[in-house]
Every structure is written in C-alpha cells, then in structure tokens.
C-alpha cells in the first residue's frame, strides 16, 4: 500500500523595531548586532512519496544592509528553487479567515571539517547547504559573514549530533534594490529533500533568546490519517490544537494549483497547531511517525546488528548444544546374554 503523507508546518511572526525579537521560520536569525530585520516569516514543511517539501518565506524590515538565517534540514536537498506565489498565504487564511470580503488569490562527526554540499542563488538570497559539526559550522558561518549569537555553537552542535545539516541563507539589501524588491516584499524558497518522513526543527526557534522570551509559531499538518506526533501534545508546553478535520477540496485544489505544489494528494487530514511558549521550554523538534534527520537514521541502521548475524549466531549455538549432547550424554548399558 503506497504511503502518502504530507506535513505542513507554518511559522508566522511579526518583528517590531525596539521590541524583543520573535522566533521565525523554523530558523535562527543572524544579523549584525542581532537587529530585528524581518517583518514576517512563514515556513512550510510537507512530506509526500519520500520527499519533504520545505518552503520558507519572509518579509524584511529595519536598516541592516545584510542579514540571514540558519535552518537545520533532515537531509541534502535534491532541489532548491523559488517557491510558489500563494501557498503559505492560503494555508494561513484556511485557519484564520479574514473579515468577510472578496477573497482572491494572487496570480501566478563533531569536529569534522565543514563540507559545502551546494550553493544556490534565488533573487536576493544566497543559499549555502553545509554539513559538519556544530562548532565548525558556527565558525564557518562567522567567517562567511553570519553574525552569530553566543549560543549558536551549542544549538548547532545539538542538531549536527542528531544528523541534521544546515541551510544558511544570506540576504543582501543592495541586491534586492537592484532587483526591484521593496521593503515588505517576501522571498519564498522551496527545498525538496529525500526523507523517510517529515521532520520540523523547533529548537532553533530559541536561538539567541533568553529563557523568558516568547516563541510563537503556527504549524499546519496535512496527513492521510490523524498524525502521530513526537513528542506528544502533553509534552510540548504551550502547544494547542486550532483545528483537526479533513481538508476541504477548495483548500487542496488551491495548494495543488500553485507553483511546485502539484504533488499534493486529493484526500488529507488537516491538523493546525499553535505554539506559544518561553524559549527555555522548547527543547525538542517535531517528528511525524518517528521521522528524523536522514544521517541519524543511516547511523542507526549501520550500528544495528544485521539479521544474518543473529541467524548465524543461533545456528552456531544450536550446533554446539547438539554436539555437546552427543559427546556427553549417558551411555545405556548393553544387553547381557546369559
């Protein structure tokens, strides 16, 4: 039976100049002086037919000339491209409809050296996917223009130990101006990642935050049946359920008609979650049906004892016991003839 599962995680927050920075896009903000430069950011992580579709978008504000963010990924993307035009907006409107009015969609190893897996430029974003130990990745990022918070090596180290890799996206305001982008516009990026299931990083949301700062996130989950979450809801402080129902045909049609979204199946269960918690309470990532970064799964598979070893061991043990019985069993007395 073909497994069809899609998980969509959306994180949308607002950042105001002078206010404490809020978590965004399932990624960690890095900017000179750690200034607030994002007006809004939204992330979508979807899985179907062996591929995770990770779409992230943001709107920028503030005065920083260059800034970026780091996103842990469960594997090396097979494709990095510009995302669709309305998918993220349509998902938000599904659970948070506007005041009644005409609704119209817009057209259209820990100390191993860092390995650069690929580089892609999409509009004013330079995206680099790297693999390596957390401290090495942090040092590499610093050398390449990312102004990291003091806790970055520790946070990135936890992810690298679990097998994750990292996408580092750097935004250039001058390049945006040359391309005609104005403040408030967003860039949407679509990662396609071969995985065994969906995995959404949440611990990264607390990057650079003191323990009492709030993290706000909206998560949308689409599955062909009610999903199995890990951790369970009662072990995720501040997580509440906003909706749990079959996705309507209108929503699925709208998602499927956007750029790069033709993989969306026709029958899915919609679960909407909302996270509102302090930074110190988020010490986990969200896994569906036991999914994890691919490297971690590969290591587990390699370290597990193969079935043939157990079978051979059983044969040897049984053979040894049989031989021992033959050699040491009590001999029966022979028949005596009178």
Chart the SSEs and their pairings.
Blueprint: E1 13-14, E2 28-30, E3 38-48, E4 51-60, E5 66-73, E6 79-82, H1 87-95, E7 115-122, E8 125-131, H2 134-143, H3 152-161, E9 165-172, H4 173-178, E10 186-194, E11 199-200, E12 214-223, E13 229-230, E14 239-246, H5 249-256, E15 269-278, E16 286-288, H6 294-303, H7 307-328
Antiparallel strand pairs: 1-3, 2-5, 3-4, 4-10, 5-9, 6-10, 7-8, 8-9, 11-16, 12-15, 13-16, 14-15
A few lines on this structure:
Helices cover 22% and strands 31% of the residues. The chain has one domain. With 338 residues, the chain is α+β, with helices and mostly antiparallel strands.
Q: Which consecutive residue ranges, at least 5 long each, have pLDDT under 50?
A: 1-25, 35-40, 101-111, 296-305, 333-338
CA radius of gyration:
26 Å
Count of separate structural domains: 1
Shape: globular
Tell me, rounded to a whole number, the average pLDDT.
73
Give the tally of β-strands.
16
Q: Strand fraction band?
A: 25-35%
Distance between the termini: 76 Å
Structural class: alpha+beta
Strand-and-helix sequence, N→C?
Answer: EEEEEEHEEHHEHEEEEEHEEHH
Largest sheet: 5 strands, antiparallel
* Helix percentage range: 10-25%
Note the total helix count.
Answer: 7
């Amino acid at each position: 039976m073909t497994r069809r599962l899609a998980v969509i995680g959306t994180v949308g927050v607002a950042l105001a100049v002078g206010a404490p920075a809020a978590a965004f896009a399932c990624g960690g903000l890095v900017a000179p002086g750690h200034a607030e430069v994002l007006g809004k950011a939204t992330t979508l992580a979807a899985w179907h037919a062996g591929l995770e579709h990770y779409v992230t978008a943001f709107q920028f504000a503030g005065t920083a000339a260059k800034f970026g963010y780091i996103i842990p990924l469960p594997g090396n993307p097979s494709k990095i491209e510009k995302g669709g035009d309305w998918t993220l907006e349509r998902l938000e409107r599904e659970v948070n409809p506007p005041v009644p009015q005409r609704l119209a969609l817009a057209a259209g190893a820990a100390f191993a050296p860092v390995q650069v897996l690929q580089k892609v430029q999409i509009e004013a974003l330079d995206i680099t996917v790297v693999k390596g130990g957390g401290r090495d990745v942090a040092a590499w990022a610093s050398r390449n223009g990312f102004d990291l918070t003091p806790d970055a090596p520790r946070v990135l180290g936890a992810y690298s130990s679990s097998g994750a890799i990292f996408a580092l996206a750097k935004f250039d305001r001058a390049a945006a101006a040359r391309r005609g982008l104005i403040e408030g516009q967003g860039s949407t990026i679509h990662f396609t990642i071969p995985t065994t299931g969906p995995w959404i990083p949440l611990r990264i949301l607390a990057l650079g935050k003191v323990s009492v700062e709030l993290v706000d996130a909206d998560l949308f989950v689409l599955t062909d049946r009610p999903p199995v979450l890990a951790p369970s809801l009662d072990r995720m402080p501040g997580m509440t359920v906003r909706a749990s129902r079959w996705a309507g045909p209108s929503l699925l049609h709208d998602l499927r008609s956007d750029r790069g979204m033709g993989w969306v199946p026709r029958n899915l269960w919609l679960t909407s979650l909302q996270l509102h918690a302090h930074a110190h309470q988020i010490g986990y990532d969200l896994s569906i049906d036991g999914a994890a970064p691919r490297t971690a799964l590969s290591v587990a598979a390699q370290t597990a004892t193969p079935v043939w070893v157990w079978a051979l061991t059983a044969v040897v043990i049984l053979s040894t016991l049989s031989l021992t019985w033959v050699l040491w069993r009590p001999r029966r007395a022979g028949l005596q003839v009178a």
